């Protein structure tokens, strides 16, 4: 059974179309001004309206305020939260009535074990590589963690794998971890924030989606 895939950080109709045509199950829109993938809510809404029902729009946020959530949640199926405490994640889920993904930055097995704090507060865990101290962005840096840190883990929630994935390593990542959902951003770019249609297609092919 192939893994499903989320193509994250999309900002154009052409790259959104490539993700849909390639068989992505989810597409991600980043709402975080420091990111090179930041997108205006109005543009994201217009792109989301073109999605078929089988493809879910996910909003990516860094500890968002209620105003930003109110402007974006109506056209999203899920919200992905970075640097957001479990209590705040639970409050957001109650407020927006959308599926909540909690990003868990991983460098050690203790980080993986910390995902249990989101039981009852989120619907899915996104294991991502922990950025260096002082990094401006919580993700999308092309970093990966040791996938074997997930060996034998009893996951508290459904989960997805992120961090440093690309068309050349995603099949190995799926094989090592057993991930049923993988998430890519910088791994299908030619420059920060510049998605590549061919790389998107190759990534989805490597997951078995096309």
Automatic annotation (TrEMBL):
Its EC number is 5.3.1.24. Keywords: Amino-acid biosynthesis, Aromatic amino acid biosynthesis, Isomerase, Tryptophan biosynthesis. The keyword Amino-acid biosynthesis applies. Pathway: Amino-acid biosynthesis; L-tryptophan biosynthesis; L-tryptophan from chorismate: step 3/5. It is an enzyme of class 5 (isomerase). Residues 5-205 form the N-(5'phosphoribosyl) anthranilate isomerase (PRAI) domain. CDD domains: PRAI. One of its GO terms (molecular function) is phosphoribosylanthranilate isomerase activity. The keyword Membrane does not apply. Belongs to the TrpF family. This is N-(5'-phosphoribosyl)anthranilate isomerase. The lineage of its organism: Bacteria, Pseudomonadati, Pseudomonadota, Alphaproteobacteria, Sphingomonadales.
């Amino acid at each position: 059974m192939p893994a499903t895939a989320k193509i994250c950080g999309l900002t154009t109709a052409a790259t959104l179309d490539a993700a849909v045509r390639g068989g992505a199950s989810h597409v991600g829109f980043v709402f975080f001004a420091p990111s090179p993938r930041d997108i205006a809510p109005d543009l994201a809404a217009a792109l989301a309206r073109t999605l078929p029902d089988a493809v879910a729009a996910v909003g990516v946020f860094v500890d968002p305020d209620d105003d930003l959530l109110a402007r974006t949640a109506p056209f999203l199926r899920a919200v992905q939260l970075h640097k957001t405490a479990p209590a705040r994640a639970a409050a957001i889920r109650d407020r927006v009535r959308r599926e909540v993904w909690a990003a868990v930055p991983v460098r050690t097995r203790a980080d993986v074990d910390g995902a249990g704090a989101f039981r009852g507060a989120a619907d899915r865990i996104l294991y991502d590589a922990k950025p260096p101290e002082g990094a401006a962005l919580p993700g999308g840096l092309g970093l990966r963690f040791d996938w074997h840190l997930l060996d034998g883990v009893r996951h508290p929630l459904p989960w997805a794998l992120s961090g440093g994935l690309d068309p050349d390593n995603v099949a190995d990542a799926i094989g090592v971890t057993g991930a049923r959902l993988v998430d890519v951003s910088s791994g299908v770019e030619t420059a920060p924030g510049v998605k590549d249609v061919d790389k998107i297609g190759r990534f989805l092919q490597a997951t078995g989606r096309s």
